[in-house]
Write a structure and sequence with these properties.
Elements: H1 2-6, E1 9-13, E2 19-28, E3 34-43, H2 45-67, E4 72-75, E5 81-84, H3 86-92, H4 96-99, H5 107-110, H6 115-124, E6 130-140, E7 144-156, E8 162-170, H7 172-229, H8 234-266, E9 274-276, H9 278-288, H10 290-295, E10 299-304, E11 311-313, H11 315-331, E12 338-346, E13 349-356
Parallel strand pairs: 10-12
Antiparallel strand pairs: 1-2, 2-3, 4-5, 4-8, 6-7, 7-8, 9-11, 12-13
Helix pairs in contact: 7-8, 9-11
């Protein structure tokens, strides 16, 4: 019985509720015979009450931590998980057995082995008491890709034992909003640049339009004024009437082109395709610009390969295209120059080529040559 008591320490309360620690040991003689007992009674009431208060404080602290909506994890100095709150388990969809006493980097099949997390912990332990604002983007096992803002706080206990409190703030949605906002800003900037480019193109178009409309108007007004003065002979009168008619036709064609441009923009342009011969189309276009070539003493060389045959196309549109090519060639060819027009059969296709001895098109402008209302830089319209 005494040997059994020797193996135990008893804690008990007296009638007033004070706590004592009772230790009972056998008293042995020099012959190692048990000849009684030694009882030691220690007052541990203060210790018990302090322990109780400490446990109550810990319980209260844990209760407070559990109510914090932000996920929290407490690590020991070996970076193993001591405790996590409910928000942590809910956010990362894990359980206490899967996390407690586990090395933080081994959680979730090693998906927590994040360089930014290692950097944060390595900075906290030997140096700082807290580090905030470590942004981490990681794919977690059960919740997918998340962007987390990490904060760490070092806690010192008695005996200089260190613990680390980690706080996790999910900023995934915030980051998505920032990306969407950046995209919207980029779209807005792109739309603004397009609008500015469109306005510039309109300005250039108006410049070209005013120039193109002014030339035939000048001819009409000039010759009609001479007719009104009645100082012309019969031949000059006939010439004036012919020039006025041609200028009026040219202006009508310009207006039709403007209407065509409107139809192109609204998707209403229709082509009247039918079998046609290209040679008469080209010859008619050359005849339209003949007065312009004569005014600048420009020689037009026309080489139309025979037996091209008919092609499927819109004769009026083709004539308009060729007329525009010829007009540009004449406009940018100096006085006394030459414009060559050729029609050839190449690889089962008919090719129309207009070349001139003018200034040509720079390599920088070539990518824009098919854009509407584009003018050559530095060249008067």
């Amino acid at each position: 019985m005494i040997d059994t008591l020797n193996l135990k320490e008893l804690e008990a309360q007296d009638l007033e509720g004070r706590w004592y620690n009772l230790r009972i040991r056998p008293y042995r003689t020099t012959e190692n015979q048990i000849d009684g007992v030694v009882m030691v009674l220690m007052d541990i009431d203060a210790l018990k009450r302090s322990t109780k208060q400490l446990q109550e404080a810990l319980d209260y602290a844990e209760a407070v931590v559990e109510t914090v909506p932000e996920p929290l994890v407490v690590l020991n100095s070996d970076l193993r998980v001591i405790k996590s709150n409910r928000a942590f388990y809910q956010m990362f969809q894990v359980t206490p057995p899967q996390t407690e006493q586990q090395l933080i980097f081994e959680l979730g099949n090693g998906q927590w082995n994040i360089p930014e997390l290692r950097s944060l912990l390595e900075e906290i332990l030997p140096y700082n008491t807290q580090v905030e604002g470590f942004e981490v983007c990681c794919v977690f096992e059960k919740i997918g890709q998340k962007t987390i803002l990490l904060s760490g706080y070092k806690i010192l206990q008695e005996g200089n034992q260190q613990m680390i409190l980690l706080a996790f703030h999910d900023i995934t949605q915030q980051k998505q909003f920032e990306v969407e906002r950046t995209q919207l800003l980029a779209q807005e900037q792109s739309a603004r640049l397009e609008a500015e480019a469109s306005n510039q193109a309109k300005d250039e178009f108006l410049s070209i339009l005013s120039h193109e409309l002014r030339n035939p108007l000048h001819a009409i007004l000039g010759w009609s004024g001479l007719l009104q003065a009645q100082n012309l002979d019969t031949a000059e009168i006939n010439l004036a009437i012919e020039i006025i008619q041609r200028s009026a036709r040219a202006q009508t064609q310009i207006i039709e082109e403007l209407l065509d441009m409107s139809r192109i923009t609204t998707g209403k342009l229709r082509l009247n395709n039918r079998p046609i011969d290209l040679a008469p189309v080209i010859e008619t276009a050359i005849e339209v610009v003949r007065l312009s070539t004569e005014a600048k003493n420009i020689q037009v060389e026309c080489q139309l390969q025979p037996a091209i045959g008919q092609v499927l196309g819109d004769a009026e549109r083709l004539q308009q295209i060729i007329w525009n090519l010829l007009s540009n060639a004449i406009k940018f060819t100096p006085f006394g120059g030459r414009v060559d027009v050729t029609l050839e059969h190449i690889n089962s296709q008919a090719e129309i080529r207009v070349s001139d001895t003018g200034i040509g098109i720079s390599n920088d402008f070539l990518p824009h040559v098919f854009e509407r209302f584009r003018a050559l830089s530095g060249v008067p319209l």
